[in-house]
Amino acid sequence: MIDILKGVNLYLIGMMGVGKTTVGKLLAAEIGYRFVDTDEVIIKAAGKSINEIFTENGEAEFRQLESDVLAQVCAYTKLIISTGGGVPMQQQNWSYLHHGLIIWLDAPIGIILQRLAEDNTRPLLQDADIESKLTSLLEQRQPMYSQADLHITISAIETPEEIVTRILATIPSILKPQ
Ligand code: S3P
Question: Of 99, 104, 108, 123, whose CA is between 20 and 30 Å from 150?
Answer without folding.
Answer: 123
